């Protein structure tokens, strides 16, 4: 994919939607299983709900209850609230409609293709593309701003900076499976990141420290071992690459 978007002789080639090439990475396993069952039954036009917030199941149940008895708004709303947020860690599911959005996740994947962190223009004999790092950093800023806006709308605090010495409180279950049928591992509540691979954890710590030192010192070392000053024009571009 990176070669297609970078090579000058493939600029007219359009990448297919990744959700169609790798649907198991964008649609939850239950929906894919239902689609496979319908296909085996010979059905061609069916409706499969890919749900990550459980809201659809609630509204479907609510509609069935409305057909049987008068609807009492206060009681139904309270039942919904209790089911969704009775666990102290379930509050993150309020913004699952945003974090699990297929198109949004596809866009993030495309950003990794157009602005790969490992790409070296000189090594691959490509024309140097300036402001790649700055453009990717700007994209992440916009995503974070919109994410915090959605959290505000759902009465949630803003996203907090990641800390290596603190536990990750809310768990996460992607509800996905790999192409071989194995489920994507879920993250339990209150996980201690120090139990992860210590080698990679140390690398992340070193990278975080080096970036902070470069910002404080307003300079970095280039590939030749020399020092390069950071300023308002090139600082974000250099640190983001």
From TrEMBL:
One Pfam family per UniProt:
Hemocyanin_M
Presence of the UniProt keyword Cell cycle in the record: no
List the protein's name.
Hemocyanin middle domain-containing protein
Domain of life, per lineage: Eukaryota
According to the entry, every stretch annotated as the Hemocyanin middle domain falls at 18-241
Tell me which GO cellular component terms the UniProt record holds. extracellular region
Keyword vocabulary terms for this entry: Storage protein
The UniProt GO MF terms for this protein read: nutrient reservoir activity
InterPro entries associated with the record: Di-copper_centre_dom_sf, Hemocyanin/hexamerin, Hemocyanin/hexamerin_mid_dom
Q: What lineage does UniProt assign to this protein's organism?
A: Eukaryota, Metazoa, Ecdysozoa, Arthropoda, Hexapoda
Q: Which Gene3D superfamilies match?
A: Di-copper center containing domain from catechol oxidase
Q: Does the keyword DNA-binding apply?
A: no
């Amino acid at each position: 994919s990176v070669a297609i978007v970078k090579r000058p002789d493939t600029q007219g080639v359009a990448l297919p939607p990744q959700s169609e090439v790798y649907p198991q990475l964008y649609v939850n396993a239950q929906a894919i299983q239902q689609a496979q069952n319908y296909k085996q039954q010979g059905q061609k036009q069916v409706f499969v709900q890919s749900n990550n917030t459980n809201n659809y199941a609630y509204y479907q149940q609510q509609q069935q209850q409305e057909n049987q008895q008068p609807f009492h708004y206060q009681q139904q709303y309270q039942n919904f609230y209790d089911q969704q947020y009775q666990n102290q860690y379930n509050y993150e599911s309020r913004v699952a409609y945003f974090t699990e959005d297929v198109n949004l996740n596809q866009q993030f994947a495309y950003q990794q293709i157009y602005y790969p962190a490992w790409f070296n223009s000189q090594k691959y004999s490509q024309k140097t593309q300036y402001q790649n790092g700055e453009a990717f950093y700007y994209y992440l800023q916009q995503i974070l701003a919109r994410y915090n806006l959605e959290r505000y709308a759902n009465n949630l605090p803003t996203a907090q900076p990641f800390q290596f010495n603190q536990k990750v409180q809310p768990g996460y279950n992607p509800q996905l499976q790999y192409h071989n049928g194995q489920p994507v591992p879920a993250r339990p509540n209150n996980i201690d990141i120090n139990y992860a691979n210590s080698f990679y954890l140390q690398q992340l710590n070193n990278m975080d420290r080096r970036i902070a030192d470069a910002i404080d010192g307003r300079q970095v070392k280039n590939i030749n071992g020399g020092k390069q000053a950071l300023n308002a024009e090139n600082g974000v571009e250099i640190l983001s690459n």
